[in-house]
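Quarterly update from the structural biology core.
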Amino acid sequence: MLKVKDAVKTHVNKTQSNKMMWIISGIACFVASFGSLMGFPSPVNVAVAVLSGTNIIPAFIGALLSYIIQGSLDVGIVQLCSILVIAVVRVVLFNPVKNDNPVFLSLLTSGVMILFNSVMAVATPGDTYYIVMRMLSSLLSGCIVFAVKTVLQRRDDNGVFELGGINGVFGGIIYIIIVATLSAVPVPAVNLGRIAGTFCILCGVRKYRNAGGAVMGALTTCGVLLCNPLLAKNTLLLATSGLICGAFIQFGLLATVLSFLGISLISLVAIGVNGDTFFMFADLVIGSMLFIAVPVSVIKKATGRIMGMKNSVDYVGQTACSRLSFVSHTLSDIRSQITLVSAAIDRKSKDNDLKRQVCTALCSDCKMFEGCWKKNKDYTLGAFSRLEETALSYNGISSLDVDKNLPLCSNPDDMEYVFNELYKRLLAEKANSIHLKEMRQLVTEQLESMEDILSDLSYRVGQVRSVDSSLSAQIRDYFSHLGYPNAKTCVFVDENKTQRIEVFLTSSFKGDLLKLTTGVSSITDCDFDLPVITTVDNVTKILFTEQPRLDIKTGSFQASCSDNEYSGDTFDTVSLSTSERYVVLSDGMGTGKRAKLDSMFTVNLAVRLLKAGISVGTAHKLINSILRVKGWEESFATLDILRLDLCGGVAEFLKSGACVSYLYRDEAVKVIGRQSFPAGILPECIPDISGIKIFSGDYIIMTSDGVSENVIRNGMEILRKIKNINPQTLAQKIGEMSMKEYKGKNRDDISIVIVEIDDKNDAI
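Predicted structure, tokenized:
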């Protein structure tokens, strides 16, 4: 029943939207068919019809009615025929949705219009100038289509159309054509193009001050010039008025409007009163009054719908994302510099060997230096190498070692003393060097982990695609009504086009979650699942996520290696939202209390990191670093993380020393995962990360090393026989089968976690 209601509601909304687009396309083409550009029939209506897409037939009807009302069907015959042919090509021969490329549409528009203009040139011969101008108008129509489609595509791709570079050029062209088209509409006593231009000039002054007013004034003049060159003389003063009135914006909008009208009136009188002077000033007054009457919020909302402009919250998110990325790159540079310094220190310590130090301290001042180190250098180096090997083997040398290897040495006692003292000093330096190297390595690892954390946070911030400030305010008022006046709320859409709501409270939430979810869903007109609530200190985060298509059911089984021992395995499940779920499993080194502590520490740390928004890869790096410096002997554990994206239908696996997992689908078992080292055993412990697409009816089985693959495959036979068995019963049966396999033998700790993927729609 719910599915039928949703389908009917969607159909009604789609039908209403289609009817509205038909009306808009017809009116736009009706208006665009009036007047002329540069003294020739306007080709803008053809461009409007092409841009209408599947609504090109209502656009044709609007153009036809316009020419009938004007009594100029013969003038618009080229445009009408072009619209019909383009409609046949797009709607009948090609798919209008797939063939939406700006280049294709612009070439189609210009090509068809040039074809019919050529036919008209042959049928009604005229002068060359007239033919050339008709061809130029055909190219102009194609250029309009290309500019508008490019603007729309860039807005859809980036979520916003930034007015800069080539985008600014396209935006200026579109604005000029709109002003020219409105100026051609025959409304008595007023010029719609100049009224719209005045309104836009004042909007530009409010947004960009002097520069905005001057640019919009110049573009408005160009638009009026294209339609009616006779009106351009008076219209030229708009750029000057827009430039000067920008200096008054600091005194308020009313002062800005009055200064704009005053400067325009003085300019009109200065250039001389003519037949258009009073009409020009009337247009300016109407446009100014319209600017004052329309609320700023309405202008911003309309601009956002047309241009896709981001609000302040979006810009803050974008800035935060950029800053996090910048800090991440800075940490990366610091880490690289530490690595270079470490390499230079290592090279220097290699050069500073024992032979060189003894030679510098004792032999350089000896009277036999010339004979030992210059005439018999190879013999002396060999003797010193043997003495060094003896020192390394026996922790020093004796006088007998000196007599044996250097029988001609003139200072054997000093040689023994200096060699042993420098050897002890060298050992201390090497020990200190090793300690410093380990510290530098740990610092490098921590910097790398911080870099990854910032990248993760940057990604989380970048997931926000659009923020609905109006709904956010309504949700905030709703929580205030419930008794939480200081609630911070944000309604946004992520990169998967899934709506989410984040609410932060300065106290714990006490109330009916089902009633709360129903109220929030009613306000946003979106079905949300029960929220995920996280509390840190005195701050409570409530996260609502749009109901995903998929859901999960879990079951588990655990048994220790013996009845009197603790299980060394630990697992936990985490729900960051209704669409993002995690299962974390760890097997500690060995068995008993010690293994349990290691696995509990690993799982608890992983859960806290995942709840903080850290990715599975970064969480593994941090856990690996922490386990290495924890101080316990042989302090390491396996780490097995399953991440489920129930909206996107994706499962991600991270395995660090963990056993393989299994996917049961269509009565077949697939092994997932490869061999890797446990966390905490190596400085650079690279985990095995893989991902799969998940569907309703899939089963994912995670185990510790106490469960064999043979048991899993035999256990899946139960699913073939009992179709509706729940995951908990299935995990219990597989666990019992695994324990029977160890009967009479020493068994390992056993842990089994089974996740069943369901489709919510099937449940309904």
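Residues 315-462 form one domain.
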